[in-house]
């Protein structure tokens, strides 16, 4: 097979370029000799670009990114609290804007405790689940405002937007995934209090469930879910949840599965109308940037998700296996970013 994919690469700020360099090494090696090529375009976006030019994400950037088959992103953002970045609006104006404009309605975050990975739980059992977080609705859409700002009478609204269309499409994705994994789906919400949105989520899950008789369906309130993620994470397989709950749960999920250096994610448009974006969950880590101290594993596992999304399942599996082998061999000795990347590269080639 000979095939070329176009890839938009956004290294970003801080450790972003360091981990993306390793991720690209692995991507190139995983497809070397197979006739599959990645034609890469580099985009300078993030805090650095804002400081240089005052731009966050221009219409031209967006149009150009849209024309690619997929996106690989490192991390964006400067030192939290840097006064020069007060108006940069990196979170809403760049990251969320990409997710909304590219209709990334599935935010996919696999959580697996690899053998040998350090974790905070004394008796974790087997942890291997995937969070399917809705990515385009909920309280993150910017549907709000405030009046009488700065006064004792200030009013602030941040309205959660939930549509039947938006919920159904992400629920369908989650059921299909649960069916492929031969397992179970857990809806996480807060239906006892958020009765309007929660009720609609529950009804849609119940309706789609009738088309998937092989998938066991479970429900947990989000507060209870945080308990079980710590006391009995093995009970989860596919979790489907809204944008806000998913944001919080996936940080917890990352923490119980070896930490921020390992957590990968995909912002996915399953319809293929727009390119999907793959990125480590972590940020730009200004505290360790430029020192080769960052663990590139999360970025490399994001490459595996990217390959899988493009239908390159064997290549994806080879990357994951190389990472698993490397994690299993870790003994706690600190290694530089490129040393970890090279070690995984060597296992991939073996
Ligand atoms: P962060 O994830 O960058 O760092 C949190 C802590 O984890 C730091 O101590 C850091 O050194 C450590 N860490 C992160 N990634 C690591 C890795 N690969 N290996 C080893 N240690 C790692 O989160 P923080 O400090 O809240 O944010 C820093 C900047 O990143 C901010 O500007 C923030 O807005 C941005 N950010 C960007 C994200 C993205 O691009 N998707 C996501 C989260 C934060
Ligand atoms: Mg988060």
UniProtKB/TrEMBL annotation:
Binding sites annotated in the UniProt record for substrate: 99, 109, 133, 223
Residue intervals of the Isopropylmalate dehydrogenase-like domain: 6-344
Catalytic activity: (2R,3S)-3-isopropylmalate + NAD(+) = 4-methyl-2-oxopentanoate + CO2 + NADH
UniProt entry keywords in alphabetical sequence: Amino-acid biosynthesis, Branched-chain amino acid biosynthesis, Cytoplasm, Leucine biosynthesis, Magnesium, Manganese, Metal-binding, NAD, Oxidoreductase
Coiled coil ranges: none
Cofactor binding description: Binds 1 Mg(2+) or Mn(2+) ion per subunit.
UniProt-listed InterPro entries: ICDH/IPMDH (IPR050501), IsoCit/isopropylmalate_DH_CS (IPR019818), IsoPropMal-DH-like_dom (IPR024084), LeuB_actb (IPR023698)
GO terms of molecular function: 3-isopropylmalate dehydrogenase activity
Site-annotated residues for Important for catalysis: 140, 190
Chain positions recorded as NAD(+) binding sites: 283-295
Enzyme Commission number, as recorded: 1.1.1.85
Necessary cofactors: Mn(2+); Mg(2+)
Positions that bind Mg(2+): 223, 247, 251
Pathway(s) served: Amino-acid biosynthesis; L-leucine biosynthesis; L-leucine from 3-methyl-2-oxobutanoate: step 3/4
Subcellular location(s) per record: Cytoplasm
Family matches, as Pfam families: Iso_dh
Function: Catalyzes the oxidation of 3-carboxy-2-hydroxy-4-methylpentanoate (3-isopropylmalate) to 3-carboxy-4-methyl-2-oxopentanoate. The product decarboxylates to 4-methyl-2 oxopentanoate.
Family: Belongs to the isocitrate and isopropylmalate dehydrogenases family. LeuB type 2 subfamily.
Protein name: 3-isopropylmalate dehydrogenase
Native source species: Microbacterium terregens
